[in-house]
Design the sequence.
């Protein structure tokens, strides 16, 4: 049985300094402190501002197309032979992933703060596309930082961003993936701190980002909770979501944290297998440290240098994770597991073939674990997989793995 | 009195300004770092900031990023860097050494273990770029216990209330970051720096060192005129990058850079 978290405990987190237990906080160079404190102050005000909330809700409805459906995957359930599998269809959002929930919210904040220049980091390119999209809509200058390796493997999304008017900066430093993109975004921010708003794409980074991204993404879990009650008269028994930085997972989990009977599973990228070291699963195989402005579980060597990561999915290829997940792991409220590249690819193929839904490779990790978990559960139980994004962007990767040129 | 405090006090009495060069430990090779540190002292350094390489130096521009990569290629660890200071101290027990870097290598080593080893080796101060005083509750007492000076950054964006709070947590000196940007960018505005440093002096008795954007004798003198010391980093590290192959040549090049800065700073005293 899960840990009981009261409303009181939940509303007290993060604390005034952005800590979730031992995790989170604000570990940045001094130049950024004032901006972060201003952002925190403004956000906490706007959070309770009916005008801001109404605008956010309207955009989610009319521009993103929310609520996204909670879909009963009947055939997948039959094939699996266990719990009823339901899919939260974030892939049906405008731009094809959950990322846009957050970029809408942060772009609104940027407008309220009068910032005209937007920067963002991206791994798979979904957050970059979602940021470029809202910038196009609001007429804001947009710069997206993306690791050079990811620019290669996600060329479709790079082109989408360019069509949307964004400048894509290929980051050549370090491992040339998401963590390096975040480093360069931070460097750009320090250099343009007066006129620039940094839209972070996940629940990591310095306070208040883990808080505000979680709040904006929580619409996923709030809808799921309501829809589950409407459609089945009860709450789900288990929630499953993939975890890179962890924004879709926290968005799904957060509104259920007080429901002690709802089990939660965050699925990390097991890459070639945890035992090989070639993975991106800090919660499963890392240890606490400090990177990108927060204390959290990291993949690092014995000297505290950040380790290289591997995942077939660019969006999970990150050595850290949101601090709230680190806390949820330590207190035992959520479980964190991993699936390998190959299992994720099987998950991709299964959902595509059985339900006609092509998930993103990130999401395919959640699918793979969700199916495995459902098989162990009773038929009258209910498991929800968060389908955080659609797989169009990954077709090239899949084809390449199949040895097909397209 | 700490070694840093002593040096700063002596300089002040002579109406001189501190010259504080930065190099990344282990760049271009761990074997030459101690030698380079002695070279810096001979060329006029009052204090040395020795960079601890980190895989993800978020506040640094490309020059120091590459220095970190060169150093880490040899597997330079924080323990080894402390070992370099110990080696340096065999010949030099006067020049203060400040370790400058990011929090995670220190956290991985353990704060107690780090502080003990660093103090034993003769490290005088620690500047952690991504550790604002708000997050230093656990770390600060450990440093104090080992008599390590905690040096914090001040920035153009730091409001007065924070300047006072940060100064209260600091000892040795405070490091004023001259512009909004990463290390190695060339956008220093001396008039703005002068105004800000004068204002900081009103709020703290600690010496104010200014870093970021100091490239030559001219900028060193201009900034030295309005502060208590100048910190010179990227231009030295860039020189190391361009002279990796020949250590003797490298030492000459570093001296050629630093010596004119020393002279320019000392000419301010007369």
Sequence:
């Amino acid at each position: 049985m899960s840990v009981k978290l009261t409303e009181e405990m939940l509303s007290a987190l993060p604390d005034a300094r952005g800590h979730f237990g031992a995790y989170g906080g604000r570990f940045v160079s001094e130049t950024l402190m004032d901006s972060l404190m201003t952002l925190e102050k403004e956000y906490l005000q706007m959070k309770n501002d009916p005008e801001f909330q109404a605008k956010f809700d309207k955009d989610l409805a009319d521009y993103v197309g929310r609520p996204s459906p909670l879909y009963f995957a009947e055939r997948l359930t039959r094939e699996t032979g266990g719990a009823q599998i339901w899919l939260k269809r974030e892939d049906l959002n405008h731009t094809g992933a959950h990322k846009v929930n957050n970029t809408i919210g942060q772009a609104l904040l940027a407008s309220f703060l009068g910032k005209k220049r937007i920067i963002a980091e991206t791994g798979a390119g979904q957050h970059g596309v979602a940021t470029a999209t809202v910038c196009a809509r609001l007429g804001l200058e947009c710069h997206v930082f993306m690791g050079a390796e990811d620019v290669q493997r996600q060329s479709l999304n790079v082109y989408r961003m360019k069509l949307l008017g964004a400048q894509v900066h290929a980051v050549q430093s370090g491992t040339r993936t998401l963590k390096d993109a975040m480093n360069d975004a931070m460097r750009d921010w320090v250099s343009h701190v007066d006129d620039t708003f940094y839209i972070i794409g996940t629940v990591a980074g310095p306070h208040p980002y883990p808080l505000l991204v979680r709040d904006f993404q929580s619409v996923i879990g709030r809808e799921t909770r309501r829809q589950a009650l409407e459609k089945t008269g009860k709450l789900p028994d288990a929630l499953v979501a993939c975890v890179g930085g962890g924004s879709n997972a926290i968005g799904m989990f957060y509104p259920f944290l007080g429901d002690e009977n709802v089990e939660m599973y965050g699925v990390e990228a097991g890459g070639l297998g945890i035992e090989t070291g070639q993975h991106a699963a800090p919660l499963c195989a890392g240890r606490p440290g400090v990177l990108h402005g927060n204390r959290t579980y990291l993949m690092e060597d014995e000297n505290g240098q950040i380790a290289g990561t591997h995942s077939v999915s660019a969006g999970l290829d990150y050595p850290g994770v949101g601090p709230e997940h680190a806390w949820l792991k330590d207190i035992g409220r959520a479980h964190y597991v991993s699936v390998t590249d190959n299992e994720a690819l099987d998950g991709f193929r299964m959902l595509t073939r059985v339900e006609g839904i092509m998930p993103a490779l990130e999401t395919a990790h959640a699918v793979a674990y969700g199916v495995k978990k459902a098989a162990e559960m009773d038929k009258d139980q209910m498991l929800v997989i968060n389908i955080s994004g659609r797989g169009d962007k990954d077709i090239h990767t899949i084809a390449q793995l199949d040895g097909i040129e397209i | 009195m700490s070694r840093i405090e002593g040096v700063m006090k002596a300089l002040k009495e002579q109406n001189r300004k501190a010259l504080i060069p930065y190099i990344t430990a282990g760049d271009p090779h761990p074997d030459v770092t101690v030698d380079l540190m002695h070279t810096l002292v001979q060329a006029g350094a009052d204090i040395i900031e020795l960079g601890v390489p980190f895989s993800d130096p978020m506040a640094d521009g490309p020059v120091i990023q590459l220095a970190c990569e060169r150093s880490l290629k040899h597997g330079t660890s924080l323990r080894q860097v402390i070992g370099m200071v110990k080696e340096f101290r065999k010949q030099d027990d006067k020049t203060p050494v400040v370790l400058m870097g990011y929090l995670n290598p220190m956290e991985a080593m353990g704060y107690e273990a780090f502080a003990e080893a660093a103090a034993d080796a003769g490290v005088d101060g620690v500047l952690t770029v991504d550790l604002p005083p708000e997050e230093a509750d656990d770390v600060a007492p450990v440093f104090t216990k080992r008599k390590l000076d905690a040096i914090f950054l001040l920035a153009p964006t730091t409001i007065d209330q924070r300047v006072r709070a940060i100064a209260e947590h600091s000892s040795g000196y405070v490091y004023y970051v001259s512009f909004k940007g990463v290390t190695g960018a060339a956008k220093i505005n001396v008039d703005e720096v002068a105004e800000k440093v004068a204002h900081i002096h009103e709020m703290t008795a600690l010496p104010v060192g200014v870093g970021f954007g100091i490239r030559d004798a001219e900028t060193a003198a201009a900034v030295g005129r309005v502060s208590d010391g100048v910190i010179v980093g990227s231009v030295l590290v860039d020189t190391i990058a361009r002279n990796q192959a020949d250590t003797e040549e490298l030492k000459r090049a570093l001296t050629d850079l630093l010596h004119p800065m020393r002279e320019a700073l000392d000419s301010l005293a007369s």
Notes: The mean pLDDT of chain B is 96. The interface with chain A takes residues 54-62, 65, 69, 72, 75, 77-79, 102-109, 129-132, 134-135, 152-159, 162, 166, 177, 180-182, 185 of chain B (CB under 8 Å). Chain B has one domain: 3-267. The beta strands of chain B are 18-24, 48-51, 97-101, 125-128, 149-150, 153-154, 174-177, 208-211, 229-232.
